[in-house]
Amino acid sequence: MLKDIEKLLRQDKMPHIWCPGCGNGIVMKAMLEAINSTGIDTEKTVVVSGIGCSSRATGYMNFDTLHTTHGRALAFATGVKLAKPELNVFVVTGDGDGSAIGGNHLIHAARRNIDINVVMFNNNIYGMTGGQYSPLTPHGKFATTAPYGNFDRTFNICDLVKGAGATFIGRGTVFHTKILTELIKGAIENKGFSFVEAVSICPISYGRRNKMGTAPQMMEWLKKNSMPVKAAEKLGPEKVEGKILVGELYKEEAPEFTQKYDELIARFQKGAE
Ligand SMILES: Cc1ncc(C[n+]2csc(CCOP(=O)(O)OP(=O)(O)O)c2C)c(N)n1
Ligand code: SF4
Question: CA 71 to CA 95: how far, in whole Å?
Fold first, then answer.
């Protein structure tokens, strides 16, 4: 309920800067609901973001927050988690922030399986700077820098993160908010690197250019073009082609980075005695 999460918002920072119909508030609410329902200590919770419309979420969330530089949220978050492994560390990142300039940080944080929960707000575009294409702009879609349609291949960021070593991966959308909230809860419960792709809508910098209509029409589009991953597994690839697959995509157990680091220190301290 909204009442339960109001305390997790910085009311003095309202109104927010997001455009009417933007999906960012929906993803932020899913994060707050997940944090609230898992009952983690909010005094020991840190949220780190880069730069972009989505990254402004750290300004509105009532935790210890860091609004850092474009693409570098995971580098800052890694420092926070290594210095104080007892903290619950989240990263809020945009598709541009986290998959382009911050792509290498994403690969290596996943590779280390460091216990950080990343929520990537994927609106398929660089929203804040007016609509340049990002690595997650689908093939053929229009952007200020792709006036004839994006000729890059469509890129699956969850596959990249899986290949790199993440131990929890899920995809939700701003239409499927219950699923999105559950996935963020799954990320919190996983002791290791967790990645949740939150497919969002940017009616201003993406929707207008791609003639997707109003925000409710973009939501309708998300509903029609998504499918639960479990249902997709039972269908042939031709029926799944182009669909956004939502749900838990991957989970495994693997040693966590800060725990291994602490064990190493303890081993050498013992040796020195
Ligand atoms: C080093 C650096 N390069 C470029 C920029 C300009 N810049 C600010 S936000 C942004 C893109 C944001 O897009 P995304 O991460 O997808 O987030 P959104 O705004 O869509 O939520 C860029 C390129 C910057 N601030 N710093
Ligand atoms: S430009 Fe797009 S992503 Fe940015 S606040 Fe507006 S609708 Fe949201």
Answer: 10
Q: How far apart are CA 212 and CA 204, in angstroms?
A: 10
**Can you tell me the distance from the alpha carbon of 148 to that of 150, in angstroms, rounded to the nearest whole number?**
7
Nearest residue CA, atom 5 of ligand 1?
70
- If you count them, how many residues does the chain have? 273
Angle at 157 between CA 151 and CA 163, to 5 degrees: 120
**CATH number for region 2-272:** 3.40.50.970
Question: What are the extents of the domains in the chain?
Answer: 2-272
Give the gyration radius of the chain's Cα atoms: 19
pLDDT of 67-107, one tens digit each? 999 999 999 999 999 999 999 999 999 999 999 999 999 99
Q: What is the pLDDT of residues 100-138, one digit of tens each?
A: 999 999 999 999 999 999 999 999 999 999 999 999 999
Cβ contact 116:190 at 8 Å? no
Instruction: In whole angstroms, give the CA distance from residue 3 to residue 146.
Output: 43
Longest dimension (CA), the chain: 69
State in Å: Cα 97 to ligand 1 middle.
6
Express each pLDDT in 161-208 by its tens digit: 999 999 999 999 999 999 999 999 999 999 999 999 999 999 999 999
- 0.90 exceeded by the pTM? yes
Ligand 2 pocket test: pick from 17, 205, 209, 217 the residue with the most ligand atoms within 8 Å of its Cβ. Answer: 205
